[in-house]
Amino acid sequence: LGSGCRMLENREEELTTVRVQDPRVQNEGSWNSYVDYKIFLHTNSKAFTAKTSCVRRWYREFVWLRRQLQKNAGLVPVPELPGKSTFFVGSTDEFIEKRRQGLQQFLEKVVQNVVLLSDSRLHLFLQSQLSVPEIETCVQGQGSQTVTEAILHYAMSNCGWVQ
């Protein structure tokens, strides 16, 4: 029994930190304005190709990701996204902050789920700046790069690394 316990102690615990930060309003004042968020990921998990990455995504891309995860997860429940409220009482800043918190909670739950973590769309969403159509093309093997190559290419371009 003793040696088994020691083996567990020596095994490094896998940790994944995901932060949704720095909401920025794009095209402010126009009818097609939107907010994008910086997603910072730091991990020692073998599930991830890059150990640190930083990308910007907007709410509509989160909606797409959740839909894809749901399609592929079978009976595994996919966490909810914060609502898309058009009738929000309070300031825009308050709404953006509540949404930011909701998106972070969504991603924290997703990266803790082994089934969801096996979806390559999630990895491209978190660790590349590919657009949604480009992610689909890559996952279907029709792009010029594999999923791993796309993530490594982004990581090596220094865009994905936090300076």
UniProtKB/TrEMBL annotation:
This is Sorting nexin-11. It is a peripheral membrane protein. Residues 15-132 form the PX domain. One of its GO terms (molecular function) is phosphatidylinositol phosphate binding. Belongs to the sorting nexin family. Keywords: Cytoplasm, Endosome, Lipid-binding, Membrane, Protein transport, Transport. Signal peptide: none annotated. InterPro entries: PX_dom, PX_dom_sf, SNX10/11. One of its GO terms (cellular component) is endosome. It is found in: Cytoplasm; Endomembrane system; Endosome. GO terms for biological process: intracellular protein transport; vesicle organization.
